[in-house]
Amino acid sequence: MRIRNLNTFLTVARLGSFHAAAAQLHASQPAISARIAALEEELNVQLFIRDKRGTHLTSRGTQLIPYAEKLLSINREMRAQLADDSLERGTIRVGIVDTLAHLWLAKLLSTWHDEHPLIAFELIVDTTSSLIEQLKSSELDLALMVADEHPLPNFVTEPLCSYPQCWVACKSLDGVEKINSLEDLSKFQLLSFTHRSRPRQYLSELFRPLGEQAPVIHSCSSVPSLLSLVEQGVGVAFMPEPLVRSGIDTRQLVAINGLPKAPALNFCCAWRLDDDRILPRLLADTARKMIKNQQ
C-alpha cells in the first residue's frame, strides 16, 4: 500500500474535492483520480461517491480515515528517526531478564547506541513477572523477557529467541556420574531460578510425584551467582544451555544426560499496545537480528 495514495485519500476527504486536492498536492486531477482508484482496487472497496452535490466519503471511506492517519503518522516518525539531522533524543527504559542480560546485554547496548547515539538507555534487570507489571504501569518502554504461554492483553509481543534447558554439575561433584533417573537426582541439592520463573515451575511439576522424596531446590535470581554455585559443586543446576556452554566446553562442568528432556525456554520482546512510537519496535528488531546472527 503506497503512502502517497493514503495521503491523497486524506487530502480529498478533508477538502471534499478531487480538483482542490490536485491543486494542493501539485498534481493533475487525473493523477489524483488514478491514486484513489488504485487504493480502492487494493482494498476492494469504494471510498468516495461523486455526484452533483460534490465528493462524499462512503461508509468504508469513513472507516479508513483513522487507519490512514495512523499509517502516515508512523511513516513520518520513521523518516524523522532515520534522518541524520533528526536523531531522537531522550531516555528509553528497557527491562531484561537476567539470562538475556548475562548473554547479550553488553552487545545489545553497544549496537543500540550505534543506531541511536542520542538516546540514553535506562536498563532494568528483573524477573519476567516484575517486568510485566512494570510494562503495565508504563515504568518500562520495552521488555526482553520469557515468553508467556498465553497472550498478554494490551501488549505487543514478538518472538526473540529460544534456548534448550539442561542439567549440569561440577565435574568434581561426588556421585554425579551415577545420575540416571529422577530418583538418583533427588539425592542431590538442586539449583535453579526463583519460584515464579518458568524453569523453577517446571521443576516443581517434575518432582511433584515424588512427594516427600523430592529434592531440595535452592533458588537464585542472579545468573552469575547461580553459575558460581554450580561451579563450586554446591549441587546440580537446571539452566538454559547457553549459560553453561563454556563451562561444558572447558570440562569444568558436565551435562547430565538420561534425565527427562525439558521444553525449550522461549523469550520475547514486549511493549505496550497503546505506545505508537516506532522506537520500541526498532530496538526489538535490532535485538532479534543481532541474537540470530551471533548464535
Automatic annotation (TrEMBL):
Which key words tag this protein in UniProt?
A: DNA-binding, Signal, Transcription, Transcription regulation
Gene Ontology terms, MF aspect: DNA-binding transcription factor activity; transcription cis-regulatory region binding
Q: HTH lysR-type domain: from which residue to which, for each copy?
A: 1-58
Fetch the PROSITE patterns from UniProt. Answer: HTH_LYSR
Any keyword Transcription?
yes
- Establish whether keyword Lyase is in the entry: no
Checking Pfam families in the record gives: HTH_1 (PF00126), LysR_substrate (PF03466)
Family under the similarity heading:
Belongs to the LysR transcriptional regulatory family.
What is the name attached to this protein's record?
Transcriptional regulator, LysR family
Species in which this protein is naturally found: Marinobacterium lutimaris
